[in-house]
Amino acid sequence: MVGIPGSSKGCTTCKRRKVGCDLKKPYCARCTNTGRKCEGYVKDWRQRVVETPVKQTADTRIIFQPNGANAFDNQLLSLFWERYIPSTDESISDGSPCEWLQQVISSPSLPDTDALQLSLKALAVTRLGRMNQDDRLALQGQSCYVRALQQLQKALKSDLAVGRDETFVAGYVLALHELFECESLVTSMEAWKKHMTGLEALVSMRGPQKHRSPFGRALLEEFRASLMISCLQDRRNSVLASAKWLARDWDETSNSLHPTIYDKGLVLASLLEEIDKANLSTANDSTLFYFLQRCLGMDTDLDIWYEEFVIRTPSSSYWPTPTVINSNEPGSTLGPRGLPRLSFLNLSIASTTVTFWALKIIISNTIATACSTIFSSTSRRESVASLNAVETTSSLDEVIDNSDPAASLDEVTAKAQRLSNQYNLSQRKDLATSIIRSMPYCLNFNMGLLGPQRAFFALRTALGMLRSNPSPEQKWLKSNHKKLAERYVN
């Protein structure tokens, strides 16, 4: 079987990637044709005993290692990698689901004093200690984390080391450590956001051209996904939302639409910061309608992006699957409306799709809030003509004729009412329900740690939307959010 050491005749690289090998010698064509280094057909010395657990308990796989601390550390990283990525064939059919981390782990060993080696060891050892309920191993991981922070601080003070890829990777791995391994969710999120802010400054200093290599591009895309979440949570602008970065000069060879969803999210976060600074509750009509126009334009832009995304997907990106999976797994039951769960071609498509739905929820809620502000406003200092600048979709009623200076306040309110009816609570609940129905797939234990990481933003967005509107959906989401937290901490 591909990916199980000793049972496949494929090259070491193909076995690690869990893909079929064409067995050509001395180097397989699958590796050489894709620009990868074929590591040959040396038999992998790692052995493991796998027991199929009935439910998620302590890790039962055993590793036997040769002599030497470096070899043992490499085995720990290898086992962590297996726990991190999805194990299902369909979720890795489009290549490695986490290319940057795979390249880092498969690279030659670095000195134990290096920030990158220590940060990787901290993440792997702490996570494996938690999974196996081994306090000694978890404490060793925390010790590695402290040492990694010290080494990272030294690297950031060095003119030579600060611009290196390994320094950036070390900082991002430590951010993942905060996200996964901190005992308190609040403390974890705060520390993670601090890492994101520091890494954002480091990326800005490096510039787009520094990320044009395949590894640099993969690493930047991973970071942008996390930065988008941080910016949307804090409703703040980012340097990566500027035209310099949105031009994507560092990504001239890629034709994938998956990463461009992060562009949409970063631009939306920038817009939310502007709206907060404008204080719409006291703004005049021109300001209200200006931001309403931008939100509508953003919503239309997102819809156009999604249409292209669906067209490029080789078959249906998702479909209803009535079969109920193992009830011991997070999100295994059907949704509260009795709707079947959703399945996807792979985790990449699932992550992109639920992120799209989450962004739609945020935009819809922002438009509804602007309309509500119009309803409650008692001061109309601008003429209704300012409303006519709003570019609406074909599904909306015709705009008010700006040639009529006598248009009444009732027309302004009526227009806002039509927008409010389109972007209503029911629409946002439908989007949240779609996210709910996707969670059994994303939170399945076969998706490793990467599945919950990719679903975290959409799950939190849906929960936040339903928090002020009690419903069966809210109860279901809270249950899965709790299971998600337990899965990371325990």
Automatic annotation (TrEMBL):
<dbReference type="GO" id="GO:0000981">
    <property type="term" value="F:DNA-binding transcription factor activity, RNA polymerase II-specific"/>
</dbReference>
<dbReference type="InterPro" id="IPR021858">
    <property type="entry name" value="Fun_TF"/>
</dbReference>
<dbReference type="InterPro" id="IPR053178">
    <property type="entry name" value="Osmoadaptation_assoc"/>
</dbReference>
<dbReference type="Pfam" id="PF11951">
    <property type="entry name" value="Fungal_trans_2"/>
</dbReference>
<keyword id="KW-0539">Nucleus</keyword>
<dbReference type="InterPro" id="IPR001138">
    <property type="entry name" value="Zn2Cys6_DnaBD"/>
</dbReference>
<protein>
    <recommendedName>
        <fullName>Zn(2)-C6 fungal-type domain-containing protein</fullName>
    </recommendedName>
</protein>
<dbReference type="Pfam" id="PF00172">
    <property type="entry name" value="Zn_clus"/>
</dbReference>
<dbReference type="InterPro" id="IPR036864">
    <property type="entry name" value="Zn2-C6_fun-type_DNA-bd_sf"/>
</dbReference>
<feature type="domain" description="Zn(2)-C6 fungal-type">
    <location>
        <begin position="10"/>
        <end position="38"/>
    </location>
</feature>
<dbReference type="GO" id="GO:0008270">
    <property type="term" value="F:zinc ion binding"/>
</dbReference>
